[in-house]
């Protein structure tokens, strides 16, 4: 029988509980920001904007070509399963941007189009390499969903929030040319992150990572209400903006109140997510269970990470229920539906199950302890 490879034993929770995972994501976002700063700035340079060949019309074709070539390069980089290839293309991009910075403002349209092409190659290759590495290393059924969530989040952030941040950076530092330094610094930060994980990969077997926390009893209904407060705050802000847009003073007071509710609810949810993963590990140290720190990062950084975390918790608690047939079954098909439709309800269900397991654990310990008369 052929031995199982080390990479086949990695779950999404194992992957997301490592520094390598988050360093790769951070390096991608930093390099994407640096690329977008230059891509946005190049089309506004005089030598590029006033060219007779109308290079503005060609930027779309060069961007599409860079994305296509980046997909192929990302596949090759993913096969290597190392970070050296990613570091090489980021370093090459940073070097090209440094040379372009020295050539400003007389950078020709042809060189500008090449930089746009190469920038899209870097961004797409980086994103595809990360997604392929995560999907290839993990073996559980949540691996593809997790890799797709990371990929989608990176694309969403890099194509929207980072784009606006890059454009704002250029407009802020356009007069003195310091925008180029900001973009190059972002590429340098990406290189530092990649250098910090040099030699690491997901080929080795995952190490023991759980740090169990003693369960704390909480009312499931209270958890649901507190977890729903950020959602209610967002809905209230939208409603207030539509109903009372003319009353500036009223809107200002209500906005402050709603913001306070949102922040307090988010902090409470973050604390619950951190604690609950350690408390579940108290009963069962499953390889599918995220560490508290990894769960907190996924909850805060990935928009739909809450659903992934809750579905994972449900699967782990089902394993605990199989080991303890006396516990009441709470996770029916409705639990999975609530994880997607309205996660706060599923959070309350998880808390109720933890309370029941803690009570059963306390009863079994009291029965097994020696009785003295």
Automatic annotation (TrEMBL):
The chain crosses the membrane at residues 12-38, 58-78, 85-104, 110-132, 144-167, 179-199, 220-244, 250-274, 295-317. Signal peptide: none annotated. Keywords: Membrane, Transmembrane, Transmembrane helix. The keyword Lyase does not apply. This is Uncharacterized protein. It comes from Achromobacter spanius.
